[in-house]
Amino acid sequence: MTNSIPEVMDADAILITGSNTTVGHPVLGARIGQAIREGAKLVVIDPRKIPLAKEADVFLQIKPGTNIAVINGLINVIIKEKLYDREYISKRTEGFEELKETVKDYTPERVAEICGVSADDIVKAARIYAKAEKSPIYYAMGVTQFATGTAGVMNICNLALVCGKIGKYGCGVNPLRGQNNVQGACDMGCLPGDLTAYQKVANPDALKKFSEFWGVELSNAPGRTITEIMNAICEDDIRCLYIMGENPMISDPDINHVDHALEHCEFLVVQDIFMTETAELADVVLPAACYAEKDGTFSNTERRVQKIRKAVDAPQGVLPDWEILAGLLQRLGVPAEYDSAEDIFNEMRKVTPSYAGITYDRMEKLGSLQWPCPDEEHPGTPVLHTAKFTRGEHALFKPAEYKEPAEQTDSEYNFTFTTGRILFHYHTRTMTGKSDGLNRIAGKSFVEINPQDAAKYNIKDGEKVTVASRRGQVSIDARVTPDVKEGVLFMPFHFADGPANLLTNSAIDPTAKIPEYKVCAVKIVK
Q1: What is the pLDDT of residue 255?
Q2: Residue 198 belongs to what domain range?
Q3: pLDDT tens across 402-422, in order?
Q4: Within a domain: residue 511?
Q5: I need a labelling partner for 218 at 20 to 30 A (CA). Which of 32, 270, 312, 459 fits?
């Protein structure tokens, strides 16, 4: 996030797109609800009528996969009505004329046709966002999980820049992370092309610094993403896979393909807190301590680094992740002489400028700090890009053309399928699936279908249906609801019995390599 969560309380208008915030991020969702009750206007852009849509001043219920078109439509209106921030664009950006040329054809009328929404609502939404002094944008995987996900994120940045709303309190572009400490994992170099804090392995200076610090010669070749790894296993290009705290047998697209890859893998190691669907396929399972059984830090979605403290002892034979990894390194002949998680954190700080000023002692006294925090006198950074951008003095507009999803409906697979979360379960239910109370409330999967479509197929609420794509099929209960548009089906992805990702498409974004979880073509039969 470029900004901080508490700033939403001072917002004049809030734009949410591709995020079912009260379900996926209920603490922030509660704050948004409070801000609305205190007078903030709300624009929601989503394929489903999510709970916050009922409180929105404008709800744009777009067709899945049309995010880029609708944002271009908002920018078109803002430029046409001269609601953009001329001074900010002149002083702090470049490439505006190219953006202006790109969006000129995305009139409200054309965008309404593409997205299946009202042209008048597009105009109204654009005015609400542009005219508000403080108006943050919040987005989640309903923007990123497309073959055009990178362009979708860039276009949200275009919208904020056009209105001069990056680098200002109460504004910004604010991605909401899908799991706890995803931000921290990325900060620590878990992305395939990155060292800590996004220092690129392809950058000779960064690689030299880390190679000298660790006393080894590091490769400048980026690694592979999960989707690429599964393909490489099937091609015998990867023979050993080590999975930590991830359950791709539920969470990855095209699960039949994932199953084939993991069965084919010569040596599979899974390190996790429970015996997951993925761990059941492993040659070796390493039991790891959960968050309450270890010390360390989490970095949350607003870049806030927080200390966690061990509350209870782990079961016998169960170790924190860092102890397992250190033990493996030592057995492989690599020195890993650490006494605590703090030792590792302090080593990381020495090569990571944005974390250099964050210490365990400071977190103990202050509670938390937001990076970048370059030295121990620095208070942390609640708002990014106030003086300059990561690339320099000027932000660059990156125009985006709308492209249809990778897989289209046809006469056989005639429904558009999308996935998401429900309030009662977390990710693949590795933890929440162990709760009898939660399972009594929401113990099995379902598919949402519009009442008009249900009538056409003679499907009643609660009846068993089969949903099939070109990759697999799932038999589950139907939930008849106007929350989805005609021609659209929605399933939560949490459940092993009725896994949505048996159906989803593994087509990937060429830049970020994110799979297109959020749209594919399916059929439904009673």
Answers
A1: 93
A2: 182-370
A3: 999 999 999 999 999 999 999
A4: yes
A5: 270
